[in-house]
Amino acid sequence: MPSFETRELRKTVLRMAHAGSTVHIACAFSLIEIMAVLYRSQLRLRGGPRAADRDYLVLSKGHGVMAQYACLHELGWLGDDELARYFGDGTRLKGLSDAHVPGLEVSSGSLGHGLSVGVGLALAAQRNGTDQRVFAIVGDGEINEGSIWEALLFAVHFQLSNLVLIVDENGFQAMGSTKEVLDLGDLAAKLTAFGLETREVDGHDESALDRTLGALVRHPCAGPRAVVAHTIKGKGVSFMESDNRWHYTRLTAETYAAAMAELEPGSSRGKEAA
Amino acid sequence: MRNAFSQALVDAARSDSRVVLLTGDHGYALFDDFRRICPGQYLNAGVAEQNMVGVAAGLAKGGLRPIVYGLSAFVPVRVLEQIKLDICYEQLPVVLIGDGAGVVYSSLGTSHQSTEDIAALRALPHLSLLSPADAQETTACMKLALDCAGPVYLRMGKSDLGVVHERPLALGWGDLPCVRAGAGPLAWIATGSMVKTALTAAQRWPESEVFSAPCLKPLDESAVGAICQRHEAVIVLEEHSVYGGLGSAVAEISAASCPTWVCRVGIQDRFSQFCGSYQYLLQEHRLNVDAVAEQVAAFMARLPDAVNVSKSHSPSRRAA
Lengths: 274, 320
What we know:
The structure holds 2 protein chains of 2 kinds. By secondary structure, chain A is α/β, with parallel strands linked by helices. Chain A has one domain (6-273): Thiamin diphosphate (ThDP)-binding fold, Pyr/PP domains (Rossmann fold), CATH 3.40.50.970. Chain A has helices spanning 6-20, 25-29, 32-42, 65-74, 80-84, 114-128, 146-157, 178-182, 187-194, 206-218, 253-262, 270-273, and strands at 56-59, 134-139, 163-169, 172-173, 176-177, 197-202, 225-230. In chain A, the strands form 2 sheets. A 5-stranded parallel sheet of chain A has the order 1-2-3-7-6, sandwiched between helices. In chain A, helix 1 (6-20) crosses helix 4 and helix 3 (32-42) packs across helix 10. Chain B has 2 domains: 2-156, Rossmann fold; 178-308, Rossmann fold, CATH 3.40.50. Chain B has helices spanning 2-15, 32-37, 49-61, 80-88, 117-122, 135-147, 194-202, 221-230, 246-257, 278-284, 289-302, 305-308; strands at 19-23, 42-44, 65-71, 95-99, 128-130, 152-156, 178-180, 186-190, 209-212, 215-217, 233-241, 261-267. The longest helix of chain B is centred in the first third of the chain and has 14 residues, at 2-15. The chains are: A alpha/beta, B alpha/beta. At the A-B interface, helix 6 and helix 7 of A face helix 3 and helix 4 of B.
């Protein structure tokens, strides 16, 4: 049984990012605990990435995909070799979520697409009379997209009670803080006003996440549910945390070694030890 | 034509419970029968086309057979990226209906007119494109679309300009039904609303052969090549921009396989300037019968004499 231990997931992300010399490391780090909790105890995978009655994890913020690759690796759905050859010529794992990869439900990266597809999956499950749930992860920057608000109106109107929206609210988007770029204001209040049963949670507290998601899934309300997960972009490596340069910065040999060292058990890493 | 469309929708929904009709708050009276007979399969997604197309993709992934209805000015152009990424990339069986194609909404102006939809969609892999000319073709195209395992866009003109086919026809992908036989120098290939116009205008060139192209993609390249082979010139008519539509597709095939003169008659590179009736707008864009005939005559006048004087035109000239 995979453990989805978050230090290991982050190390997997770093290995991939180093192997492929890729960006978006901090975007993946903010949702590691969310992914870990979902795969460990919320998603009913029921046999495999193409199981007809599986729950769906829709990664609408496709640039966080390395966090999901790390989980698929834990499940044994992606092998070591595939991660080691990340971004190599002729390989299939891209820098953004791609539905051609078993385990990834939507093609995203262009933002504001995945939630609507997830809404359609939730509606299909209801019409098919299955008990499938859809967990859709969106970024807070992504919420700039008008299609997100269209999807929320629709999900509430059609009472999609099997839909759980999870906002990875790390406070940053590509070019700056969400407050500077296009202020979302009180996001939980907005979602509540739209009619979603909404909770806020520390997005890096696994037990709180698990409790909140579990309670929301069981909540007797008729419509969709939402969790605003307060997260830290770059969480887990001190020099990446809330430093938005790590949206686009690639690892060097030195930063790779330093980041990996911080993720060793017993590392005296500053912020967490404090 | 609209009755045929409405009937095809009802038939599809009754015979397959997986069929779900989504509309972006359009189709006021068009869906009365559907809503009465299959209320559980009708879904108004509101004035929110991006979400509607994404939802359709999710429904298709979940095993349902969504039909997305919109005005062709909105579906597909406003949601081109959703069609590309959410539907085509995964080859999902979603039928997209673009109603009121061309300048049908003559009095509403540019926002509701669509003369670029085919050009926008032709380059999307996996997407098939249909453009019926009358009620019979609409019925046949709906059958093709609903039986298709991948995505389809069906372009529908709103106004009937007349009957092209007297009897029901069976259509296969790429078929080019010949609507008038002839061995003269000119072949005409038209689609949608312009098939009837082509038939009428072509009478001025005796022995013209006229084809309807209800299937814009895939086009049967060998059939188009054979038409180019048999005739001195090919006239292509469409209520769509001369850039990127049927005329371009025929010219591409001709250039690659059987070079011949191709006259593209359609909307020039401009928006409608004025308001008025549909017929008025067709005149403004020179797509009424007389203006089409003038354009063809002018085109023919520019061709080398050898083409125009070949009264002794033989269908087998190039085979010789």
